[in-house]
Amino acid sequence: MNYWDHGELSVSGNKKYLQNGEVPFFWMGDTAWLLTQTCSLEECALYLRNRKEKGFNVIQIDFFHSYKEDRKEGDEGWDKDIRNPEYWELCDRVIDMAEDMGLYIAVLPVWGSIAKSEIMDEEKMVRYGRFLGARYQEKKNLIWVIGGDVRGDAAYPRFCALGRTLKEYNPSRLMSFHPFGRTSSDQWFAEEPWMDFHMFQSGHRRYDQVTLGRWDDKGQGDNTYGEDNWRYVDQVHSRADVKPVVDAEPSYEGIPHGLHDPREPYWEDCDVRRYGYWSVFQGACGYTYGHNAIMQFHSDISKPGAFGVREHWMDALHQEGSCQMRHLRSLMERVDFVHGTPREELLLCGQKERYHRISVFAGKNYIYCYDYMGDMFILDLKDYRDKKKLSGYWFEPVSGTFSYMGDLTGMKEITVRPPRKASGQNDWVFVVFSEDGSCFPC
Q: Signal peptide location in the record (predicted)?
């Protein structure tokens, strides 16, 4: 049974999560921007099956990432691009394959750099939206994403025109906006009726890389959160009109810190785990993973690719970070996460900063604590003292393994001391499960 067999994808009653009918949906996305523009049908099938079997359920792609400048005189330019029947037949097949595998495709119709250029205007956006809306009106596994690594105010009227037009063809289909690095869609589109859930791009920079003098420096007046991607969740959830929110582009695995300089260290699997657990335990409706080689489908390793890419995309398919994302999803789906909340007040030792932050997410019958550095902390258990049985576990986010650590029944508090890992990557999830909620690991 596929997700949409339970009902269309929609926003939950508390406005913070997604659901199919009454069944909660946890967004576990992968970034595949250039899939249909770069890969053959056979390669698309290989990629989709790999992601399906790893537990991903949303694939983020875009239909047009760049524009061919070598147009002959008299050519219709952009209009000719969107009238290429062979390309649209490939897109149709990919969307159909994804549907057969039970995967949602989050489609970005046109990348932001094109949308804000002289190539496009509002009238062309509307025409393009009508073309897409009519072609894909009945598809069950589509989510529309406007934007594409761009500020909302770079082409605000055009983005809104495309959003409104697509919404006319299928009003119940969910829609969002993929923003510029270290910004969130709620900065511009919080009041737009076509906006169903928010995306933010926490981006690829370290805490100390606020300004690099490059094209992707942020605008004046933007919030500067560094690597604290959980703060974007708070930003969205603090609004009167609460909506679900997801980190749709954190630091990609296998990309240099700061994006541009391959002499810098590269982001690793532990980093993508940290971004995932930090944002989800703060109340995000899911998380999107990305790998540098896969997002651009780099295939010619004899030539330098973008952003210091080092691997062929088929090798990158098997990188550690992508193998570990299913454990975050399975951990959340084990409990009633829709009614869970961030609970850092349960930290009796107080909250810590940056990499030493302890993220706490809890519900009626469980507590999850993500500890990136393996630091000691003290957890308040008073709200759970009346549980018939309370047990503690270590959840290892690399392997997805639960390891029983003790009976916590009746305890007021516990001093948590994570074990040390030989690998040096010391992140753990400390888990408290109540028998009342049937939460014990199998």
A: none
